[in-house]
Amino acid sequence: MNILFVMDRWVDRGSIQAAANYVRAGEELGHTIALYGREDPRFPGIRFSTDLHAFDYVVFIIESGLRWMSGLRMPGILNTVPRERRVVFDADGMYNQMIAVDGYDRNHRDESGRAEWLAYYDLIADKILQPTVEPQEPRVVPLPFYGYDPTSQLGAAPVKRFDIVHVGHNWWRWREVSSCLLPAIERIRPLLGNICFVGSWWDAVPAVHDPDLEGAFCVDPERLRRLGIQTRAAVPYTEVVCAMSQGRVNIMTQRPLFRRLKLFTSKYFEAFCADTIPLVMLDPDHAESVYGSAGRELALNGGISDRLLDVLRHPERYQQIVQEVRKHLAIHHSYRVRMQQLVVALQAGRPLARARGQLIL
Amino acid sequence: MKLLFVSKLDRFVRAVNTITKYIETGKALGHEVAVFGEQSSEITSVPYSLDVDKFDFAIFVIYGPWDFPDLPYLARLLDGMPRGRRVIIDCNGRYNETIRVEHDFNHLEKLDGHQGWEWIEGFEAVSEKMLQPTLKPLRGDVRPFLFHAFDPAAVARPYRSPQEAAQAWSDRTNGAKPYGAVYVGNNWQRWSQIAPFLKALEPLKDQLGSIRLTGWDWDKRPDWAIEHGLKGVDVDPELLERLGVETTGAISFHEVIDLVGKGRFSPIFHRPLYNRLGLVTNRTFETFCADTIPLLMLPDDLVEPIYGSEALPLDPGADVAGRIKDMMRRPEVYWSAVLKTRAHLAEHHSYHQRFKELLTILES
After folding, report:
1. Is B37 on the interface with A (CB under 8 A)?
2. Are the beta carbons of B114 and A8 separated by less than 8 Å?
3. How many helical (H) and strand (E) elements, i.e. helices and strands, does chain A have?
4. Which of A22, A29, A162, B49 could form a disulfide with A194 if both were Cys (CB 3.0 to 4.6 A apart)?
């Protein structure tokens, strides 16, 4: 099958890592996957194409914005690709009722904002995929989409520069980080070595942003400084695993909305490609459903200070757990598996049958 | 004829004045002109319509991607208007290979998210007829159409003679001209021309009077330019302070002629890209409606073809200070040039003229 992804392209955020993996996994399985556009040296490992006639399906990967689907870009695509060959991949759970988590993170600012999103979706396609196994809307086809690439697993990194690394942008994360993670670090700070947060907007709020998104970028750089937490700019998708490997421990956080909707992201799996011990701030049951039974022990859900110290003091024990998880991921969540799931989802006339709480395997 | 313009109107920038004039002129000539979209509460003088079927042609006036409607509306527009009855007026020269002049450009992905090829293919998906407001398009498949024009009825003070104009202009007792020079335009790819202009005026500071820059971001380099690492959105606050230049924010399009007329001189600059492509703007013509002496800070090969030979004295060439001194010493000579140029513009570049040119292109 030939599948063209159309997406807002960023080297350091969103689904670009997944796109590169689909290109590779597709090749292994005899499918042709490409991104809409022309060859671009900033995106190694990605095949590009503008030949809209050459693809069986066009998948619009829609994340946190709509404007990239501009009136300049869309007419050519919509004129050329029939509706039945177009699909929306709703990465951020926008195709839902309005959801606000604890009055903080939300999918839409109001009902008119939601109506605007849904109008886009309705015009683009009938089929909507979401990276969750528990979609809230009956029309949504569940598809985990993001996966694990056993071949990109990094061997031992040259130097462990940090005890703790967090890779991810400060986008709706501050409340959890400031109320759970930082207090835990504070309690044991003298016992920890270097700590680094890698990603955008940890050092300052961006100069240009929608005032409506104040909460999304909230940060207290002084508090991070007091705790001796270094901040580094976001890295391209090709360097994420390497950046993670500089830490003995990596902590994965997820914005509250995504946790509520149980939306998968690239980060669920990237840290397991790195030479590190990933700890995931997920509900243990959810962690187990993704990572297998061993994954429960990597879930950070209370007792964060103790767990961090335990991991740093007994790395061998946790490395064994990580190895168990990697085996599970290689079997159940590899991009080869994902590729097959994507093909099935595209060909299916109706949502894939699923058992609630279990991944489609 | 019923014409539907498609563009994002903003009271402070781009083609809002020009499109308003097409609406007025169309009405005067017995045509109907509207802008596609929901009625704007901000620009109430402009009629909007979503009733695409009612119109004969859709005319896309494009500066950036934002000028195309958002998707639900776009689909309605494209479904309702066949490609053969859509025309694009490409005001920024987007429908070209990528061109950079100094720090200026016709494509910049980091600013609007679109690569050069998308402009070519995107335009071709929408229309088969491309127009550019230049006399000399680079591409063979682009038709020259200046789009912007001169409105003789908008002239603030239509003097009967150069003497009358010079006398009124020289009278500094009535407070009508508090500024020596006024420039209205936003700080976007203009500093490389504004800075030497201001420096040239420095020795004349006492004779000339104060200078005013009106538009976005003249007080300091804006944060968004710093964040994106964009050059060409520069400013030198020290220079402005030394010269006593007053900077104020953008004004609405209907206030421009009055404000420009508060200055004895008003320079006309085109951004470097426009100079390369010979693109004209609303201000190319509108400045001649104001009660001021326009200074044509434009390429030589643009001045005469657009303004006529009588405008040549208004082109200061390399010696800006020398020419301004002479203008202050012999204003009648230069007001004669201004009045003759206004007559030339009224004859060759009026909105009536332009509207008819557009109809000819549409029907061709």
Report:
1. no
2. no
3. 13, 14
4. A162
Compute the distance between CA of residue A105 and CA of residue A87 in angstroms, rounded to an integer.
26
- pLDDT at position A156 is 65
Closest among B265, B270, B246, B283 to B324, alpha carbons compared: B265
Q: CA-to-CA distance for A314 and A306, rounded, in angstroms?
A: 12
Nearest to A123 among B65, B72, B122 (CB): B72
- What 3-state DSSP class applies to A148? strand
Angle (CA) B112 B117 B120, round 5°: 95
Residue of A nearest to B124 (CA): A76
Among the four given CATH numbers 3.40.50.150, 3.50.50.60, 3.90.1150.10, 3.40.50.2000, the one describing domain B152-348: 3.40.50.2000
Give start and end residues of each alpha helix (H) in A42-196.
74-80, 111-124, 174-176, 182-188
A244: left (phi over 0), alpha (psi -120 to 50) or beta: alpha
Place of tokens 């996994």: A25
CA-to-CA dists, residue B283 to A283, B92, B185, B280, angstroms? 61, 14, 9, 8
How far apart CA A217 and CA A164 sit, in angstroms, is: 22
Q: What is the pLDDT of residues A279-298, one digit of tens each?
A: 999 999 999 999 999 999 99
Number of residues that this document lists for chain B: 364
pTM of the predicted model as reported, rounded to 2 decimal places: 0.88
> Taking CA atoms, what residue in B is nearest to A209?
B224
**Closest by CA position to A321, among listed A349, A353, A299, A345:** A299
How many beta carbons lie within 10 A of that of residue B213, not counting itself?
Answer: 23
Q: Are strands A105-106 and A100-101 parallel, antiparallel or unpaired?
A: antiparallel
Chain region(s) in chain B for CATH 3.40.50.2000: 152-348
Report chain A residues touching chain B, CB-CB < 8 A.
8, 37-38, 50, 66-76, 78-79, 116, 119-120, 123-124, 206-208
Instruction: Answer yes or no: are the C-beta atoms of A134 and A356 closer than 8 Å.
Output: yes
Which among B70, B97, B107 is the top mutation candidate for probing chain A, defined by the most A β-carbons within 10 Å of its own β-carbon? B70
Distance CA B249, CA B254 (A): 15
Digit-coded pLDDT (tens) for A299-323: 999 899 999 999 999 999 999 999 9
Q: Which residue of B has its CA nearest to A119?
A: B72
Please name the amino acid found at residue A130: Q
B66 contacts B8 by C-beta, under 8 angstroms: yes
Q: Which of B75, B125, B224 sits opposite A76 (nearest CB)?
A: B125
* pLDDT for residue B172: 82
Using the 8-state DSSP alphabet, how is residue A52 labeled? G
| B269, B193 contact by CB (below 8 A) | yes
The CATH code belonging to domain B2-149+351-363 is 3.40.50
Q: Which two tokens stand for residue B83?
A: 């490609």
